[in-house]
Structure formats: C-alpha cells, structure tokens
Amino acid sequence: MKFEPRSETTRKFITEATADLFNKKGYAGTSVADLEKATGLTKGSIYGNFENKEDVALAAFDYNLARLRNLIQETVDKCDTCKEKLLGHIAVYYVKSTNSGGCPMLNTAVEADDTNETFRLRAASGLMLWKSDLVDIIQKGIASHEFKADTDADKTALVIIALIEGGILLGKATKNYVHMDTVFDAAKNTIRQICV
Fold this sequence. Notes:
Blueprint: H1 8-29, H2 32-39, H3 43-47, H4 53-77, H5 82-99, H6 104-112, H7 117-143, H8 153-174, H9 177-194
C-alpha cells in the first residue's frame, strides 16, 4: 500500500521546520524528540505525513538544496558577466557555510558515506545539478569570448566544486576559516585563469 500524507500543508510545514535542524545535526544526530520540538507536533502527527525519519530527512534535504539553488540563482541573476556569475557561486557558498550549517550536499554525502545509499544518491544528484549549472556558465563565457576557447568546462566546473566543498570541509573540521579562505581563493584563481 502506497503511503499518502494526511496533509500537504502540514508536510510542507514539517519539512521547513526541520530543514535547518537536519542540515546542522544530520540524520543520525536528529532525534524524534528534536523533530517534535522543532515542529511543535507529536510523533504521530509527523509520521502521519511522513513514512519515517528518513523520509522527513530527504524532504528536508530537497528543501535545503532548493533554497540554496534559489539563493545562487538570485545572486547570479544580478551579475553581468560569466566571471561574476562563477564568483557569485563562491560568494553564496561562503556565506552559507559560515552562517547556516553549511552545504547540504556536503553534509549529506559525508554522513551517508558508505552507510546510506539513498542519501548518497540524493547528494550526488545535487552535485551534478550544480556541475551542470557551472558548465552552462563556462560554456556561455567561452561563446562570448570572456573565457579562453580551450577551457575544459566539465573539468573546470568539477575543480571549482571540489575547491568550494573542500574549503568548507577544512573550515568546519578545523574551526579555522582561514583554511576555507585559502581554498576559496584558489577557486577564485581557477576562474581568473580561464579568463581571456
């Protein structure tokens, strides 16, 4: 029998109320009591709208990813050049990582590791969407002669992602954001190197 939530409105409320909680504490670190406290609802009300805690966590991940992607899009839409758009991605990730629990893809991928394939796949999907966004900007920059014609868009996008995520990991793990600044500067330098 297919699970049907009691109320899409309540489901949306639970998702939004628990999104920051899951992004900061992770799946394993978030208890049912945490969910009840964040929502003000009982376990029965929560599980009347979600099959289980994993279902809530996946909805929260999707919400966090959409929120991040919307923030990036708003930033990119204000930029005139492709270089500014790529730098805008870095700026958004810097603010998100220092203020609100960090990148949901990194958090989810690290926690999933080899133990939760569903979470790993969800994080991987988000990363590939991000890569596609960066590749699109880089290809537009090549077409408009803003970036060097021989730029490998796929490779450059992956390097930018790796530097941003690696910088966040270093900053958070060491609690020394100077390390994150250093790696983010390397990401900015990668963008400068492809400019004409």
